Amino acid sequence: MRKLIFGLFIAVLPALGLAAGSTVPLDSFESDHSDKASLQRGAATFTNYCMGCHSMEYARYKRVAEDLEIPDELYEENLIFTGAKIGELMKNSMNKDMAADWFGAPPPDLTLETRLRGEAWVYSYLRGFYKDESRPLGVNNVVFPNVGMPHVLVDLQGLCAVEPKIGTPASVEPLSGNINNADACPDYAIEGSMSGADFDQAMYDLTNFMSYMADPVKLERERLGIFVLIFVAIFFVFAYLLNREYWKDVH
């Protein structure tokens, strides 16, 4: 029993530590690994905007292509820019020492990022950049203050002139019908190519893809889990009947 309690404590410790270190509320997020279209869009966004600095070196291109139902030839042509083969690990060509000089620390591998920080944290972080001229790169983030990462999605989202309202759900005024906080950013210093709703959807797709990368067998595990529970339930019936038959003459 003690081992079980200790194991559960270890399992939830990272989440407790993250919650304790979080200073802002996060937007809710629920991944859907069965939405292949969302995962495909997320893969395209990650490849075009994230993979120049961040790798996913615990996964292979071919596995991703198969799971996302993308033909190998199409994946190689449109989502591999390093000259790697479809069967190789998802690495990039950035020199870590040079990256440390540029950003203060080498960009981390993101294969397990949603398992480490949580899906809601990643989703909120991607939408949390705002203008801050006191920072070396001119931007800051409400979820990760003083982060050393540039706002690489600025051409899509634009640049928020003030801190975005992360963790504040939209609400409708009962009399006027106006929607409050429909856009996390109330004022833009730079306009982006996407509306607030479109950017939120793009960041959902990106986070959904990162969630899949951190747990690519989730759907299969959940499917098998149903059969395991059914087996346990049936086994319990036979075990109970056997136990009753065995002990009936003892008393």
TrEMBL record:
The chain crosses the membrane at residues 224-242. Heme c binds at residues 50, 53-54. GO terms for molecular function: electron transfer activity; heme binding; metal ion binding. Its cofactor is heme c. Binds 1 heme c group covalently per subunit. The keyword Transferase does not apply. It comes from the Bacteria. InterPro entries: Cyt_c-like_dom (IPR009056), Cyt_c-like_dom_sf (IPR036909), Cyt_c1 (IPR002326). This is Cytochrome c1.
